[in-house]
Amino acid sequence: MQRRHRWRAFEATPWLFAVAAFFVFPDYMAFGTQVLITIIFAISLDLILGYAGIVTLGHAAYFGAGAYAAGMLSAHLGWNEPISGLLIAGGVAAIVGFIFGFVLMRYHGLTLIMLTLATAIFLYELANANEAVTGGFDGLLGIQIAPVLGVFENDLWGHTYYWYSLAVLFLVFLIARTIIYSPFGRSLVGIRENVRRMHAIGTPVHRRLVIAYTISAAMAGIAGALFAQSNAFVTLDVLSFARSGTILIILILGGTGRLYGAFVGAVVYMLLEEELAKLSLEFWEFGVGLVLVLAVLFARRGLLGVLEDIAVRIARPGS
Amino acid sequence: MTTPVLQITGLHKNFGALHVARDIHFRLDPGARHALIGPNGAGKTTLVNLISGALKPTAGEIMLQSRNITHLSQAARCHLGLTRTFQINQLFTGLTVLDNVCLSIAERTGIAASMLRPLGRRHDVIDEAMHLLESFKLQDDALTVVSELPYGRQRLVEIVIALGQKPTVLLLDEPAAGIPSAESQIILDVIEELSDEISVLIIEHDMEIVFRFANQITVLVYGTILAQGTPEEIADDKDVRSAYLGESR
User: Fold this and answer.
1) A95 with A88: CB under 8 angstroms?
2) Which value does ipTM take for this structure?
3) Per residue in B71-114, pLDDT tens?
4) How far is A231 from A157, CA to CA, in rounded Å?
5) What is the domain partition of chain B in residue ranges?
6) Of A46, A83, B30, B41, which is the most exposed, with the fewest CB atoms less than 10 Å away?
7) A22 and chain B: CB distance < 8 Å anywhere?
8) pTM
9) CATH fold for domain B1-81+167-249
10) Which of B107, B127, B139, B163 to substitute to test the interface with A, most A CBs within 10 Å?
């Protein structure tokens, strides 16, 4: 019977890795924090892309909305408490996601891709034009974040924010996991597989998609807010096309519609980027590009797809 | 006269200058086995699309159990008991047979909007789906991914998904299309065993099936209704013989 929703042993692996990384690479926790934030962002994208089949080239819109919301809360209103700041930023991103999603979810295919691109560019230019509020091209200065839970200061090594981000990631992951195995989540898969049939079995397709899109936007916003809080700085880059594109690449590299693809993709991509940049500051993108080409040619279901195939081979030797 | 479960008055549909449905008046009686026949391109599937809400009519009215559904969405019509199948399979091909049926039942019972307890742990839904699959002798295929099923069985799943809606009106768009006649028997048995509480409108090309199964026949030609009546009346109708039966036989 359908028992996919049950927890399996391998699902502990990413968390064990995350905890182990803290003790093995204590000097890399600032980098580790950025990886965790990227995983949250990638999970938010997987929810709509991997499960509901909504292809978007503008998901940075919500990452950026969350980042600016968290940043401006502190810089302009002096609201420095990080956890409430995170929730408010998630709420702001959800509202933006709901408004855009209500229009966007009436479209599909190329039209949808172009419109998602347009919404992100729209927000980017909006932030660029309102320099007084956002800091424009120079970035938003003056973000000060109070200690997490009133106790844990943001330290130079990023230790606090590593644990803080890991806790947020775990909660976001739990919510995403609950949703995808729920009847709601299964209906999103139904919409991806055959939207025509979903209409014919009484699904309010538009409503379902708008709800999914809003939840995804909220999660992306939380990722963006964590980014703003951990760096105490926000630039227009959070809304950029490059960010929308990169997160799409990360998810596809890891594997879409698999929940753990976000983990694999983010870790592999960011490690590659980090290490290749050390080898050559000008040429690292070539290496990343090469890996992507290989992945698209030989691992169509992403790196996680390859792992799945290997697991099947091991389970059924000789086949 | 009994009140019809489905009544259509003055239904028109045109795409620009192309009239695909013209002044259609039609009624489906409770428990009817009503066949819709007509040459290719007569507008049979268009009529099913209009009734199910996939297309909006240019003019006219559709009543479902005395309720005007002309402007309701497909989903709303479904919840009122009006369900269709497709001439070309519209399945969730990447999912298992059981998943396909569970999706339909979850939508009917309204739990599909729930974000909490996993669908795989909703035993009422799964039990109902398995029960339905058993009555179609598909229980052994429950965990098979639909795309791996032979076409004839996929055709059955197409109908089981619709029955997951517990319809009062069922529109079957060529249920046996694409299946070798030896196998189509299974589909026909299934349709013949449908409860009398379901009123069935079936589009079918095979005259043998139509005359065996239907107690009412409507003949559609060029988007208009040419004749309506019992199988005997239709068989004796001169217009029908020249316009349709004469051509195909």
Assistant:
1) no
2) 0.91
3) 999 999 999 999 999 999 999 999 999 999 999 999 999 999 99
4) 12
5) 1-81+167-249, 89-166
6) B41
7) no
8) 0.92
9) Rossmann fold (3.40.50)
10) B107
